[in-house]
């Protein structure tokens, strides 16, 4: 009967770290035990790389480089964007199953569930990324930049996916069923990733789509990754600030997402309950 | 001293068909070391009370203290001293029983070694040893509830909240879970329990609070409530509906209160205080009057009987389902 009275009082920072890690570990076990999630993380990226590199390589020409070099940054960007939606559907799923009520009735750090969610999804995205890179190397993709540029490119993609996870987590807490997230991501993310420079040079698109693609934040992400991996070819970059300064644009985007959505998520989490 | 003290709790959910008053000024106090049952039909507000006291939702108005800690001002303080187990077993399907309990221990900040030790102790206590190392996914409903209940006991909480602990369980699992809860209660843990079953409240609690439409409508020990509604019910079924009036007169003589008659005139029912004795007397009298019976017996009072007596209306299930759907939409 005395355990309740003798709970240790930890300092907030170590508590935050330890709670976040406990939830991360729980999510990782979950991923390990759900074959469908591993398929999503491993098989899907392989399929995308092989499909696009083998099917479209002959049909699409890119100035100054071959299609596989051009394609890979696009697939990386698309995969991290879609990978982040998992944070949303997983939050919605936890809410539906009632485990969120358990978490909220424990004296844990109020951001730990969200930290754990976004951390474990970052792990999942990193796995996808490594698999994609290996598959890419197999079909002829090469990095033509320095090691530090390469690492900066990987870091930028993962950081983007991490911050986008927070956006999706807020969505996941706001919808009634996990299915809504999956449907919404198809409706919004497919156009967003396909009407961009990810798979074709944007100057080949009809005017309205071209304008959309040039201003599309996904295009900036793709352009930044292409430049950092040395895969950009010789085609002129559209004369738009975001495309001329893609790395800075992506960094600003990441900052804005984190500054806005981390506090919004924590606030939302404090008031949700499964029933 | 009361370990739970709540007064004037209100909560209104907005819905398309207007506001739904989940709680309309509810007062509640639970003395330390006792077991109190909140008894009421679906949609009466039981779960809303538990969610407020466990800091999951905030009251619109009113105050609530658990172990002297304000649930609104210091939710984390409250969470450090309570354990919660709900109607919808809040366990992670993909983790094993052991992993679930260890995780809860870590989130109470017991540390790794102590969390593992306590998890194993609870697995043994709840006789889940065989299943402790398999993902919860494959567990039966009763075993999930046991894991969930174990999760609420990781710290030996000062107050244990059990929200409809046996709803949806088969009778055997229900009785097994009751045995577990009774053991805990014998150790002196304060428990606030919600239930739709009078029998469950009767089995487990010292004191019962009956709630309806977000308000307390009666309070007392199980015996006091039963005295109000007249303990057992004596039921007879006549062969000839023509014997109705004579039988009714006999039931009125030995029962407590007015007998009720079914619409076909052949089924009669009356509340009785000393059940077996009343049954003997009634059967003897009916026999002496040469009234033939299809069936005769006693039944325990149900929530419906309590409600009929206290509110004049039945704990109507269909209305509650509608009210629940309403609440669901409102959220």
Automatic annotation (TrEMBL), chain A:
Membrane topology, record value: Multi-pass membrane protein
Keywords: Antibiotic resistance, Cell membrane, Membrane, Transmembrane, Transmembrane helix, Transport
Transmembrane segment boundaries: 38-61, 67-86, 122-144, 150-173, 180-200, 247-266
Cell membrane in keyword set: yes
GO molecular function, one term: ABC-type transporter activity
GO cellular component terms, semicolon-separated: ATP-binding cassette (ABC) transporter complex
Record flagged with keyword Magnesium: no
GO biological process, one term: response to antibiotic
Annotated compartments: Cell membrane; Membrane
The organism's place on the tree of life at top rank: Bacteria
Pfam families, sorted: ABC2_membrane
All residue ranges annotated as the ABC transmembrane type-2 domain in the record: 36-272
Family of this protein: Belongs to the ABC-2 integral membrane protein family.
Protein name, as recorded: Transport permease protein
Automatic annotation (TrEMBL), chain B:
Keyword Coiled coil on entry: no
Organism domain of life: Bacteria
Predominant cellular place of this UniProt entry's protein: membrane
An example Gene Ontology biological process: doxorubicin transport
Coiled-coil stretches: none
Gene Ontology MF terms: ATP binding; ATP hydrolysis activity
Membrane topology category: Peripheral membrane protein
Keywords from the named record: Antibiotic resistance, ATP-binding, Cell membrane, Membrane, Nucleotide-binding, Translocase, Transport
Domain ABC transporter span(s) in chain numbering: 4-238
SMART domains membership: AAA
UniProt keyword S-adenosyl-L-methionine, yes or no: no
TM regions (residue ranges): none
Subcellular location(s) of the protein: Cell membrane
InterPro entries from the UniProt entry: AAA+_ATPase, ABC_transporter-like_ATP-bd, ABC_transporter-like_CS, ABC_transporter_ATP-binding, DrrA, DrrA1/2-like_C, P-loop_NTPase
SUPFAM superfamilies, sorted: P-loop containing nucleoside triphosphate hydrolases
GO cellular component entries: plasma membrane
Membership in a protein family: Belongs to the ABC transporter superfamily. Drug exporter-1 (DrugE1) (TC 3.A.1.105) family.
Name of this chain's protein: ATP-binding cassette domain-containing protein
The species this protein was found in: Cryobacterium cryoconiti
